[in-house]
Amino acid sequence: MGMTHIVDRRLNGKNKSAVNRERFLRRYRHHIKKAVSDAVHRRSITDIERGESISIPSRDIDEPVFHHGQGGHREMVHPGNQEFVTGDRLPKPEGGEGQGQGQGQASPDGEGMDEFAFQITQEEFLNFLFDDLELPNLVRKKLKDTEAFNYVRSGFSTQGVPAKLDVVRSLRGAHARRLGLGGARKKKIRELEAQLAELKSATADLDAAFSHKDQVQALEDEIARLKANVKRIPFIDDIDLRYRQHLKQPKPATSAVMFCLMDVSGSMTQMHKDTAKRFFILLYLFLKKNHKKIDVVFIRHHTSAKEVDEEEFFYSRETGGTIVSSALKLMHKIIESRYSPAEWNIYAAQASDGDNWNDDSPVCGKLLTDSILPLVQYYAYVEITPQDHQMLWYEYERVQEQFPGSFAQQQIAEPSEIYPVFRRLFERKAA
Amino acid sequence: MSDAIDRPNAPANDSPATRKPVSTGSEWTFELIRQYDEEIAKCAAEFGLDTYPNQVEVISAEQMMDAYSSVGMPVGYNHWSFGKQFLSTSKGYQRGQMGLAYEIVINSNPCIAYLMEENTLPMQALVIAHACYGHNSFFKGNYLFRTWTDASAIIDYLVFARNYVSGCEERHGVDAVEQILDSCHALMNHGVDRYKRPAPISAAKEVLRQAEREEYLQRRVNDLWRTIPKMDEDEDPIKRKKRYPEEPQENLLYFIEKNAPLLETWQREIIRIVRKLAQYFYPQRQTQVMNEGWATFWHYTLLNRMYEKGLVTDGFMLEFLQSHTAVVYQPPFNSPWYSGINPYTLGFSIFTDLRRICETPTDEDREWFPDIAGTDWVKTLHFAMANFKDESFIQQFLSPKVMRDLKLFAVEDDDQEDNYKVTAIHDEPGYRELREKLARQYNLSYREPNIQVWNVDVRGDRSLTLRHVPVNRVPLGKDTEEVLRHAHRLWGFDVHLESVDEGTVVDEHHCPPPLKS
């Protein structure tokens, strides 16, 4: 019998399974992608701070092996007999599945009933979302990093790294310490030296009890002792060291408001709205990076515009025609009443299938160039249609020529085409 | 209070006044773990338990989940199925649906046992007794483990396997490796030699021989296929009845590794790794009742011995007994918690009763166990532990008393009958039959379908034919087609599976499936 060896392994890495977990997610990425997509549909656009619960039909992830099926003749021994005697006959339950008969405890009739459920983290959630949007890696990283910080000076500390040593402060402290510790002694030394000088200059037989020579000797000894003492006070000591201290402060602590404008006329299907939602989420994610506080204003419109809550924005249906300028006017009104451009960074994202009353489009162009774009940081428009451009698009092209830095538009059929409208925005802020 | 506790080894003059417990609190420290281990080791020595040296590793709950999901292997190659295991374990744990095992123990030399940091001190002591002295001595003593596994080589081999697989992933891509591993896992249970003793594994030799083997393997495979196209002498395939292989082969993975025509060498190597691991785990699958029963019997006996020696307090014993009782609880067949016979209960009951038969035999025991009744119990238990597997152990040692205690009964389910039939219960006429039926239940070849390599059409389409021999008309389950697809991926040509019952083909599966005409 050997000795027992006891090891504390708790500090070893605990994420031994990370690779295997990642392999699993990789293998079932289609399932997870779908779940993430459903979650995007379900969640509020500001609700992206958490992971998601994913479930996959157990059948899809089973690892098959050869095993016995139902049927044939078999016998099983069970515990806990109460009243049975040999030869008893018991009716089989309906459906042919007996309790615990055979190997398969999993009900063979309820195929796919049970689901394999697990959690993915927020980071993984965002990754799948970004995959959906085909974001470049650099942008992904920027969006996922929690917050940017500025370092600000905040006094001095007795601990720190050599690079942050403050020489002046440290030496000043050392000087004070040397004075504090040595000052009294130095004063004493000066007194004694004066006595000594006096003694030396006096006549030798002043006092018979002490020989003159002994007195001089005693004073000199005392002075030497004190000087040695003073000398032992270090010029600089650990306790004198002072380090500059810095505090992390969240960088731009400004507020932003994000306007979501969406056409909800009859021609916008749920599919259009889901694509639009991703568009708004992406803008929200971006703004969240750079602003401490974000207000989101939802404006929906058909022939008239209305400020609504998110639920109504995405999920109620309307019919009828489209007058885009109604939404722009409402947005302008809200900016004027609630979001002064002096205090707020204003962003707007507009989604539509491009339909508009033809004589309204020039009105929109004028509203944008004259009253809205001068107030906002960035205005992004997506036309969600696989077909030809509509009137509004051509009008907006002219707007873009005038405001190339703060206006972008894109025609999209797929979520992956959303990102380009933000490209300039990302580039600008990334720099 | 101490009278309430069963004290099988108590000398008469022991009294609580002489107690000097190792500790009284429930918080553990490394020093206390060491002290308990020392005392438990002394008790174990009194009973002659022979173990490998122990390596006790204290780990956190997260690390326990990691250990769980790699089937207890301290190192393993990467595969999504371990990730799946991890996800379901951690989810169950976080929601409080399941507790984690208190310990995991690895059949290696030194014997590695994981202790969770959350355990209280009495639990740590229980785990040490259970794993470091119970399981450990079983690994060292049981003939299956002695014959089939090499405790001193396994860790090195696992490291070799992990490095090899990750090297393949770099060279051939994660997907290609994953596919091979998926297919190997599907056939893993049929990748063991049940009768033939395998060569011991050694990581060093594996690496050394690898290049050599690569070359050799490929040449051998090529040789087999080079002799194919000579259809001169006996071109009639019906007359030329000589099959390849001449005798059916039980180890499907071995056969595929050596004979599949199209596999590349690294693929053969991966098959080899999976079947080596299957072989390593094979004894565990055949000794679950014995192994858990043995470990449970010893944690119970050793900690009671500690109590007799005054080394642990009454409070310690109460906590320990509570856990012990939970471990050996057997829900009856009609309970909602019933999920088959609890191997801990069955094994513990048999070993405990074996000791009783040795120490205080009744007339019934003398009739049933004439060779054992009244003998030295420590020797008898060691004999039982060393020389049996679950099936033969139950057949040999399940006593009428245990059958009565557990109220065992056998139910027959015949798909040609409308009713279940109770064929034997725990009474005089039923004992032998019941014991036989329960023993058979633990026979792996009864639990898993008997499937062997039957023939390769060497001269024709190179198809591989597997043969399933049903027992009692039990057909193959619904995964069969899926598994065949994996076999087909490895073999590279058509794979057929016939169920042959008494000479007639009762069922067939093909991959790819035959075209419907």
From TrEMBL, chain A:
Domain of life of the organism encoding this protein: Bacteria
Record-linked HAMAP family: UPF0229
Species: Marinobacter salexigens
InterPro entries registered for this protein in UniProt: UPF0229
Transmembrane domains' residue ranges: none
Coiled coil: 185-229
Family affiliation: Belongs to the UPF0229 family.
Protein name: UPF0229 protein KO508_06350
Keyword annotations of the record: Coiled coil
Matches recorded under Pfam families: DUF444
UniProtKB/TrEMBL annotation, chain B:
Family annotation (InterPro entries): Spore_V_R (IPR007390), SpoVR-like_C (IPR057008), SpoVR_N (IPR056174), Ycgb-like (IPR057270)
Domain SpoVR-like C-terminal: 449-502
SpoVR protein-like N-terminal domain span: 27-445
Signal peptide: none
Region of interest (Disordered), ranges: 1-23
Domain of life: Bacteria
Name of the molecule in the record: SpoVR family protein
Gene source species: Marinobacter salexigens
